Automatic annotation (TrEMBL):
This is Homoserine lactone transporter. InterPro entries: LeuE-type. One of its GO terms (cellular component) is plasma membrane. It is a multi-pass membrane protein. GO terms for molecular function: amino acid transmembrane transporter activity. The keyword Transcription does not apply. It comes from the Bacteria.
Length: 209
């Protein structure tokens, strides 16, 4: 492709990178198991929308601010860490609701679920830095912004497809567990993992360190 180097290698690397578990994977699996296939699909699409937002920000040059400004990076990192901790608390609460009854456990609108997934990805500053560090390796010198956007969209598509597959698989497991003690404990485990990821992000070293 014009302006893009080693596109096949980029696709393969994108697939492998998307397979690495992280906050996005945890969110999709947790929502799929707790709330079902529809929630899992919305979660995967929301995560994809977050990655798409990162692509747009990187293409506009705004993500470069995170790479050069320690203050901006720390501000986004703090927001992302606090958001992950908040998601953890919500998962703990969902665990209690599941123990009380399945109707309460699914009381979340589609828009709210999509927004939560979008913010989970968007508020991770390491995703923005990843786009700045990874994508340029496959763009020919002087090629302009179009190849960068195309690579970003390719990464979004591969990630979203993986997220959808993950959601459908996890929803099947959730159908067996939902409404019982196992589902409640799974929500609590997801909550603990979200809190742990939030603390890990908060304590991680700045890119400028």
């Amino acid at each position: 492709m014009d302006g893009i180097q080693h596109f096949g290698a980029f696709v393969a690397a994108s697939v492998m990178l998307n397979l690495i578990p992280g906050p996005d994977t945890l969110f999709i699996v947790g929502q799929s198991v707790a709330r079902g296939r529809r929630a899992g699909v919305l979660s995967a699409l929301g995560i994809g929308a977050g990655a798409l937002s990162h692509t747009a920000l990187a293409a506009a040059g705004l993500s470069a601010v995170l790479a050069t400004s320690a203050l901006a990076f720390e501000a986004v990192k703090l927001a992302g860490a606090l958001y992950l901790v908040w998601l953890g608390v919500q998962s703990f609460r969902a665990g209690r609701a599941t123990s009380a009854g399945p109707a309460e456990a699914v009381a979340l609108s589609s828009a709210a679920l999509f927004r939560q997934a979008w913010l989970t990805n968007l508020l991770n500053p390491k995703v923005a830095l990843f786009f700045l560090a990874f994508l340029p390796q496959f763009v020919a010198p002087g090629a302009g912004g179009a190849p960068f956007v195309l690579l970003g969209l390719t990464f979004v598509v591969t990630g979203t497809l993986w997220g959808l597959a993950l959601a459908l698989s996890a929803a099947r497991l959730g159908a067996l567990l939902r409404g019982g003690a196992a589902s409640a404990w799974l929500n609590r485990a997801c909550g603990a993992l979200f809190v742990g990821l939030g603390v890990q992000l908060l304590l991680s070293r700045s890119h400028a360190a």
